[in-house]
Amino acid sequence: VLSYVENRGTRLWTASDANLAGGTLSRTYLIYNANNNFVGTYITPIWTGVGDSTHAHVYRINNGGLSRYRALTAQLRKAMSHGLAAQVSFTWSHAFDDVSGPPLVGSIPATLVPAAYRTDESNATFDQRKRLVVNWTWQPRLVKGDSLPARVVNGWQVSGIFTGATGMPETPIVQVNGQQFAAAGKAYLMVYTNSLNGSGGWGRVPFQTPQLMRTDTAYVANARVTRALTFTDRLKGALMFEVFNAMNRQYSTSLNTVAYTATLGLIRPVPDVGVGNASNGFPFGTNARYCQVAFRLDF
């Protein structure tokens, strides 16, 4: 079975700081590489004041966001035969939007430049390009009849799910260390020092594409062995032994995202950017191998 899915989102929640003033002054950052060699510049407007000094952020909630999801899926199913049933599904998809910044107000995302949502358009946070899922169930009948040996040997079921999926996007960010242009005078003091332009918005690397990095590809196999138990016609049970991540394959669920630091107008790279720093987190859960025993009683 082949199918195509497309979903578009319009008027998604966005927010902008209505109390920011400035944005008319421009300053130039100098960019250096890991060998401390000058490699380029980044010019940005900077926000240097607020309209109402008795307040900090005053957010205006808007509906300026957009998203789009496209997917092509293929499914192959094998009906139960000789005790075996299986299903294979593969999805290729692409999700992108302009609302993948970190939470600013509740779940409403921040932007690099105030109210300039399109400058952040890129892969969505949950843009998983490829996903393969194989699941099977095998319930053999080794001995015919309803004799005592048949009831002992039969009644077993082996099932499993294998998932192979590409990683999720992560965005490189700049760690801004204090005021950048204080030596140029008070007029160049940024309002907030968590982003290069002083707006207090998304601190992503502005001269790189958002969601540039990817977590590891995941290969996960889960398996279950079930033994059916019949006590009476109405009282039945099942003893189950389950193994999660049976191959014990570890993969990163998040990365070191600090790609640069900015100090006094100089931008320098940070080592180990893109290196995995976690193997447990939403929506993955833990990827450690673990087992459990369960008993279910039906009556």
Q: Which percent band covers the strand fraction?
A: over 45%
Can you write the helix and strand succession as a string? EEEEEEEEEHEEEEEEEEEEEEE
Low-confidence stretches: none
Helix % is: under 10%
Number of strands: 22
Query: What is the count of DSSP helices, taking H or I runs of 4+ residues?
Result: 1
- Alpha-beta content class: mainly beta
Radius of gyration: 27 Å
The coarse overall form would be: elongated
Q: How would a crystallographer describe the biggest sheet?
A: 9 strands, antiparallel
What is the distance, rounded to the nearest whole angstrom, between the alpha carbons of the first and last residues?
38 Å
Give the integer mean of the pLDDT values: 93
Task: Label this structure with key terms.
nine-stranded antiparallel sheet; elongated
Structure overview:
The chain is mainly β. It is built from 1 helix and 22 strands. Strands 1, 4, 5, 8, 9, 10, 14, 15 and 22 form a 9-stranded antiparallel sheet that branches. Strands 3-2-18-17-12 form a 5-stranded mixed sheet, with no helix packed on it. Strands 6-7 form a two-stranded antiparallel ribbon. β17 and β18 (266-269) form a beta hairpin. The longest helix has 6 residues, at 148-153. It is elongated and about 95 Å long. The model has no long low-confidence stretch (mean pLDDT 93).
Strand and helix map with partners:
Elements: E1 2-17, E2 20-32, E3 38-50, E4 59-81, E5 84-97, E6 103-105, E7 108-109, E8 122-123, E9 130-138, H1 148-153, E10 156-165, E11 169-170, E12 173-176, E13 213-214, E14 218-230, E15 236-244, E16 254-255, E17 258-263, E18 266-269, E19 276-278, E20 280-281, E21 285-286, E22 290-298
Parallel strand pairs: 2-18, 12-17
Antiparallel strand pairs: 1-4, 2-3, 4-5, 5-8, 5-9, 6-7, 9-10, 10-14, 11-13, 14-15, 15-22, 16-19, 17-18, 20-21
